[in-house]
# Entry
Amino acid sequence: MARQSQTPVDAEPTSGKGPDPAPVRSMIRLRALDPRDADALLAGQDDALAREISGGPWDRAALEAFLSRCSRWSGDGPIREFAAVDGTASGGDKDGAEDGDGGGRLLGGGGLNRLAPGVERGHAAMTYWVLPAHRGRGLGQKIASALVDCARGDQRISQLVLFIAPHNAPSQAVARGIGASPSGPPERHPADPERVVDRWVLDLR
# Structure
């Protein structure tokens, strides 16, 4: 999920529904992140996730405002935020619970941002995250792979850029699993100079 400071309020809002953002990948599917996800995010966030996605814990008002903006963005726009949901059965989880129309249980998510700070024209910053209750099952790799599939389908994106903390070994393992590699020494995060990150890249073309 994009940090709040990275996401312009007026990033191509649209009242229409965009195309299906990505194909199903092994028991998960991606859909646009939207207000139905607020409760699961608020209940599921831990300190590590909060630091990575927003710099601190979400409060309900800020999160709902962000999710409302996400729901209005074009499905083929420059900033896309996705929810990764359980893709079993007809879209619900194994107990039949759903998080909305055809929803499914929220497992994690990610984003593709062609307007992110520090990203060149034709490139996109990619993020991925997994809620604490669903970690340790390989879902980070599945979510990242689905996002790569989505990016490969967008001819405007020739390279994906991942900003990963040097100590975040699980995220580095996910990046290696999709074929990304570090491109240089640690640097200040383009959107948050207080954070030091490694820049990983994955060429798509």
